Amino acid sequence: MKTIEGAPTQAAIGDGWVDSGRTFDVRSPFSGKVLASVVDCGEKEARLAADAAVAAFGGWKRTTAYERSAVLRKWFELIMARQDQLARLMALEMGKPVAEARGEVRYAAAFVELYAEEAKRVSGETFPSQFANKRLFAIKQPVGPVYAVTPWNFPAAMVTRKAAPALAAGCTMIVKPAEQSPLTAIALAALWREAGGPPAALQVLPCADPVPVSRILIDDDRIRKVTFTGSTEVGIKLYGQVSHTVKRLSLELGGHAPFLVFEDADLDLAVREVVAAKYRNAGQTCVCANRIYVHHRIADQFVERLGAAAAALVVGDPLDEQVQIGPLVDRDVFGKVEAHVTDAVAKGARLVTGGKALGGTLYAPTVLAGVGSGMRLMSEETFGPVAPVRTFRDEAEAIGEANATQFGLAAYLWTNDLSRAVRVSESLDYGIIGVNDGVPSAPQAPFGGVKHSGLGREGGHWGIDEYLDVKYLSVRIQSS
Ligand code: SIN
Fold first, then answer.
1. What is the pTM of this model?
2. Which of 279, 287, 288, 432 to mutate to test ligand 1, by most ligand atoms within 8 A of the CB atom?
3. ∠ CA 11-87-115 to the nearest 5 degrees?
């Protein structure tokens, strides 16, 4: 079997490692070099995977929660044991700095650990009947085989955040990883097999063009759920497509997170956390702060400190342990970042730091002050290391600006006033609120958005419910 950094380059289909006869190249966004020629799946492989997922579901759903938990626990241990290798793979295939990538592997593993435990906590209900000879129960059962489409920005964590609850619930899953970063997903499937998981319970179909694979799996009536993390544009299309077979659907879509800094905030903490919230993964995160609103009385100080902190970030080779900002994943993402900065500066924004390409797809961490609402980056998700700062005068204005978007994934607020923290949190139309916290994501918490940011929740007990159907049992009994 061909491997790179220990990861296979074939598709994980059924019990085997499958060659389709076609390959596509995965390149390092930093060096531009080809890392691996990966098997390119199409309609035929999607049909094979669907048949295998359906067959495997028959057996996997009948295992006990304790058996599933034991396999997940072993999978968790193997992921933790291979964290350096997986982190290197991510740094190579999508450019996440290796130190940050190691953090992602631990985050990914934590979902597996959590759902090894949650598997044992799925419980039903009994409820009273109005008839003496009836007993009423609600039980939970796995929804069936699932099709998961995962993004390139979290090649490990977005696979486990979906696969671990699905497998814990007794579902089987076919993962289509992003074409930029398929190797990490394939490596995770290899570890699943090593952990003793039934191979066809977790299959991975890498492909250069997602359309043929998605068409087959979405049209297949036996696939009972689709879960997707990616753009709002694609999510809306999927929403329509799954309606033909009435599948369950989870969507984790785009965000445009506002970051509100009130005049009573701890400025040092706010600056430190906005750096984490904004420049994490070079800004290529759905929950990254996209619009920073600062109270006008503290704005100058804030901008100065943020500019200094951004300028101090180390940019470069993602395999270097000291590097904090790696390359953007590809020319498309890079082009959008450049276009947003050019548009903002042309419309009057002041460049505080950055605003320049540093070779390849490296882009300098950027801070822009004096941004206006008509600039592209105030309404579109930039997905890059650019922090636009705008001022506000009072709480009502800050809330109004923050909510003036179709997106509703994450929002952040900085204040030392408890009443304001609660008031503003309740007024923000978002699924996740960080109160004096720039990185609220946690495996045990509900992750997901409202409005155009998606449907459903991942993480915690909410995450496993997405893979369970409720079945109602009405039982007639003989009176004694
Ligand atoms: C995402 O960007 O979708 C994931 C971010 C996170 O889990 O914090």
1. 0.97
2. 287
3. 70
